[in-house]
Every structure is written in structure tokens, then in C-alpha cells.
């Protein structure tokens, strides 16, 4: 579903400043379509979704940075992106909390998705892990988002 389709669905005209972020969001949408149609022969079942998670994270982080860090977009435009579901509001809510500033996806902090009822391995600080082993999150392919 393209951004134009999502905009038609909510039936609102975009607020001022939309023309500044629209090309980048369209680019993310094109990458998302490409990631969804990529062949996944030879990959594990979970690996096929990793590019989708990565692009979803990048798109949400782009708007988050514009609004909270650079203050380059208005509150109305930010709210419009949330209402149109162009960005993940729950993920952004976690980024505002201490210790979750670099969280890769919400599945990594859900304890019900792990065998022992704990966080994902990517949430363990790299200083506490074995330096030689490469650790990848099963859910999204993250190699460590805790710092």
C-alpha cells in the first residue's frame, strides 16, 4: 500500500511541511515494497522479515528525529503521520523512555516471545556478551540495540 493510498484512506489533506518529508517517506515505501517481494530462498523463515523490520524502524526514526531532535516538522505534521500509520507510535513512545532510546522493535522487549520469559538477546549490553560471537536477534536481525 503506497503512501498516497494511505492518505486517501484517512481523507485528510496533509498539513504544511508534508512536501518536505513526502519524498523520503515515498523512498522508504519503495524500499518496503522491494523488501516484501524479495525472493527468500535459502533464508531461514525469520530472516525473511528482517528487512521489513529494519525499514519500518528507519521510517519511524526519520520522523522521530525530525520532530524531537531537529524540531524541523510541526506537531500537526507529526500527529498526521501517526494518524495515517506512516510511523509506529508505540515504538516512538518507547524511544522516549530512558534505556530504550535505540530499541530496534517492540518484539525484542516482549517477554512472551522468548523461551525463558526474558528480553531478547539484542537487549543485553555488548560489554556483557562474548566479544567473538556475533549475536543476531531472532525476531528482527538486530545485533544489539541496548548500547
UniProtKB/TrEMBL annotation:
Gene Ontology CC entries for this record: spliceosomal complex
GO biological process terms held by the UniProt record: mRNA splicing, via spliceosome
Q: Does the keyword Nucleus apply?
A: yes
Keywords of this entry: Nucleus
Q: Which domain of life is it from?
A: Eukaryota
UniProt-listed Pfam families: BUD31
**Where found, per UniProt?**
Nucleus
State the similarity comment: Belongs to the BUD31 (G10) family.
* Name assigned to this protein: Protein BUD31 homolog
Species for this entry:
Pristionchus pacificus
